[in-house]
Amino acid sequence: MVLTVDVGNTNIVLGAYDENDTLKFTSRIATEASKMEDQYAIELADILRLYGYNASQFDGAIISSVVPPLSPTLKAAIKKLLKCRVLLVSAGIKTGLNIKIDDPAILGSDLVCAAVASLAKYPTPTIIFDMGTATTISALDRDGAFLGGSILPGVKVSLKALSSSTAQLPHINTEIAGNIVIGKNSIDAMKSGIILGTASMIDGMIDRYKEVLGEDAFVVATGGLASTIIPHCRREITVDDSLLSEGLYMIYKKNT
What we know:
- By secondary structure, the protein is of the alpha/beta class.
- Helices cover 37% and strands 23% of the residues.
- It folds into two domains: 2-88, Nucleotidyltransferase, domain 5; 104-246, ATPase, nucleotide binding domain (Nucleotidyltransferase, domain 5), CATH 3.30.420.
- It has helices at residues 37-50, 71-82, 109-121, 155-165, 186-213, 226-229, 243-254, and strands at residues 2-7, 11-17, 23-30, 60-65, 85-88, 126-131, 134-140, 146-153, 218-222, 238-239.
- Strand 9, helix 6 (226-229) and strand 10 (238-239) form a beta-alpha-beta unit.
């Protein structure tokens, strides 16, 4: 089996693939840069036991991280636990992706993984939304080349900034969504702005991206908040929660 580890700013998403390329389980733990490698090794061991697996069943692992200081700690923890080869998605690793940005070496590993999986699974051109701590948008052209994208504050970051910067607006739970456009109280008004406003932004950016691409494009969304926001969009968008994990697994296979 192969362990995939997607390190985000807020969560670490774990996945496990068997020899038949089947995703057996996914799990999330909090991203905490202050933890030592033994602490992460113990936590990972507990998660494997929770899903009925043990360290001896894994032949390899691969990490994508947007928190560089945490990468060596996690790599050491996984090596200590699984005693197997651990790859890190970074400059020089084989991805098969043609990257057409100013400096391909600085492209985030999360964007690389999402693009690799999208290219393998979906038609091109492709517009990819990853909705986590930050919301990112990426574009693949008709030939599958990575053209670049956009970065903006994620839903929870925007909501936290709004609540902490105003005296009378509360913190709200975005998981309890609603379709009220014109809110008659502060909470409904905030839900309208953050949920429907974000959905409208996504619809608008899709239109702008398609204008630049010069043709229709397949749109896919992933990330922890995609399932909350995308149902409120008016454009046709496929939600794929395991996109990054699949991209990691594909990259692992290309490099072993």
